Amino acid sequence: RVVEIQSQMSERAVELLGLPEDRPCLLLDVGCGSGLSGDYISDEGHYWIGMDISPAMLDVAVEREVEGDLLLADVGHGIPFRPGMFDGCISISAVQWLCNADKKSHSPPKRLYRFFSTLYTALARGSRAVLQLYPENSEQLELITAQAMRAGFTGGMVVDYPNSAKAKKFFLCLFVGTSGTLPKGLGTECADGGEIHQAKFTNERTRFRNAKGKSVKKSRDWILEKKERRRRQGKEVRADTKYTGRKRRPHF
């Protein structure tokens, strides 16, 4: 079942790349794992190079005798290929891991920017990168998108089946050098031919309001959420206690 889902997402990602039909292309597969996405790329007549941080997963890819070339690397350190080398890039369920600070030295915004800026350089002008990801929340999605735009990409999020809890999929569709038209997500048309607007994450700031519309900023929930957000960014944060968010008495 997992293999089937992976293959479907790979097929959709390659479709969103909008590759020319008359010639084979060289693609980069970020977080290639055991090479399941690469199998589909090969079946479509294209060539590929896969990058992954896991030696064990790449060993499986070697055992499976995948057709692509494999590179053991942490994409948070950048994409080590010459400028304009690739005709496109896909990534299935990998980019959100750059938001985690697995080491004390890791800064998620810096690692994301390093990834996107070097990816932008490695892609040919006019090409695309399609990154399927599972964002934990709106902040994570905003962080990823902001660093991609800062690196020079244009584009945005394509959401397939936005109203389905199980089938909903996020594809960050990025353009290099040219601003293309963002493809429509699957399952976004109503039965009457109308169109459902793409699902958007809510702006976090509007959530912290009570029934009368007043902001409950500085409340315990607000503080706990802010602390958790900073922890995910790898910052040092004091431990939560029963005193967190408690009002202090006024001084005499």
TrEMBL record:
<comment type="function">
    <text>S-adenosyl-L-methionine-dependent methyltransferase that specifically methylates the N(7) position of a guanine in 18S rRNA. Requires the methyltransferase adapter protein TRM112 for full rRNA methyltransferase activity. Involved in the pre-rRNA processing steps leading to small-subunit rRNA production independently of its RNA-modifying catalytic activity. Important for biogenesis end export of the 40S ribosomal subunit independent on its methyltransferase activity. Locus-specific steroid receptor coactivator.</text>
</comment>
<dbReference type="InterPro" id="IPR029063">
    <property type="entry name" value="SAM-dependent_MTases_sf"/>
</dbReference>
<comment type="subunit">
    <text>Heterodimer with TRMT112; this heterodimerization is necessary for the metabolic stability and activity of the catalytic subunit BUD23. Interacts with GRIP1.</text>
</comment>
<dbReference type="Pfam" id="PF12589">
    <property type="entry name" value="WBS_methylT"/>
</dbReference>
<feature type="compositionally biased region" description="Basic and acidic residues">
    <location>
        <begin position="234"/>
        <end position="243"/>
    </location>
</feature>
<dbReference type="InterPro" id="IPR013216">
    <property type="entry name" value="Methyltransf_11"/>
</dbReference>
<keyword id="KW-0808">Transferase</keyword>
<dbReference type="GO" id="GO:0016435">
    <property type="term" value="F:rRNA (guanine) methyltransferase activity"/>
</dbReference>
<keyword id="KW-0489">Methyltransferase</keyword>
<keyword id="KW-0539">Nucleus</keyword>
<keyword id="KW-0949">S-adenosyl-L-methionine</keyword>
<feature type="domain" description="Methyltransferase type 11">
    <location>
        <begin position="28"/>
        <end position="104"/>
    </location>
</feature>
<dbReference type="GO" id="GO:0005730">
    <property type="term" value="C:nucleolus"/>
</dbReference>
<dbReference type="InterPro" id="IPR022238">
    <property type="entry name" value="Bud23_C"/>
</dbReference>
<dbReference type="GO" id="GO:0070476">
    <property type="term" value="P:rRNA (guanine-N7)-methylation"/>
</dbReference>
<comment type="similarity">
    <text>Belongs to the class I-like SAM-binding methyltransferase superfamily. BUD23/WBSCR22 family.</text>
</comment>
<protein>
    <recommendedName>
        <fullName>18S rRNA (guanine-N(7))-methyltransferase</fullName>
    </recommendedName>
</protein>
<dbReference type="Pfam" id="PF08241">
    <property type="entry name" value="Methyltransf_11"/>
</dbReference>
<keyword id="KW-0963">Cytoplasm</keyword>
<feature type="region of interest" description="Disordered">
    <location>
        <begin position="219"/>
        <end position="252"/>
    </location>
</feature>
<dbReference type="InterPro" id="IPR039769">
    <property type="entry name" value="Bud23-like"/>
</dbReference>
<feature type="domain" description="18S rRNA (guanine(1575)-N(7))-methyltransferase Bud23 C-terminal">
    <location>
        <begin position="174"/>
        <end position="249"/>
    </location>
</feature>
<dbReference type="GO" id="GO:0005737">
    <property type="term" value="C:cytoplasm"/>
</dbReference>
